[in-house]
Amino acid sequence: MPILYSAVFRGVTNVADFSTIPGNFNAVAKEYLTKASRNDGKYTYVVEGTTFNFFTKDGTTFLCVADEGYGRILPAAYLDKLAADWTAEIGEKLPKDGVREGQLTATYSKRIKNLVDQITASPEQFSKIQAVQQKVNVAKDVMLKNMETMMIRQEKLDTMVDKSDGLLDAASQFQSSGKKLRTHMWWNNFKIKIIIGAAVLLLLLILFLVICFSAVHCFSSSSSPNSTPNLSPTQVPSPPPSAG
Hints:
By secondary structure, the protein is an alpha+beta fold. 57% of the residues lie in helices and 16% in strands. α2 (73-89) packs antiparallel against α3 (105-121). The longest helix is centred in the last third of the chain and has 92 residues, at 123-214. Involved in the targeting and/or fusion of transport vesicles to their target membrane.
């Protein structure tokens, strides 16, 4: 049979169980419950050719013991079915604290037996359901990973865009600073040229004035146009003799 033993626990208290063959499954299960019931989820332990499959959900732990040859898919599908049935039939009717060992054995153990009989009669239905569920879970995991990858890429793109904007701003500031620097340098060169030109003109003027007033009287004439020669009487020429 696929399922050898099945039970429902609150903490380490066995609320209800069903066994197809005799064995100390309950005692062995309680040794692992302290590990399996800490967090929600599914856990599997291999013990002497059998698998102890646990499914903890909202403080309730569901267990099925199966032959190791049946693998993990069939026990996992059975646990999903058992958990759904427990939620529908018991739900919040059973308090979370103060439960007794075997408190629902007389009532809920029959439902566990029915589920074990169903999986024994048609295990392919449970395995197909679990296979589909696994494909859905795989697809969901792939989608989540893809979304995570896209988010990481988007963050990198945003970072690159921010860096590009920063570089553009820096380039614009550099270009503006370059224009201001070129203008400043042009004015400095222009001022230097004006100063040099003025210095050259001043030097030429000084040289011109020095030359004029030291060697040659540039602004005085050698003779006056209104002056007449001063001739003495002895220098007056005599008139020529008359002819006859």
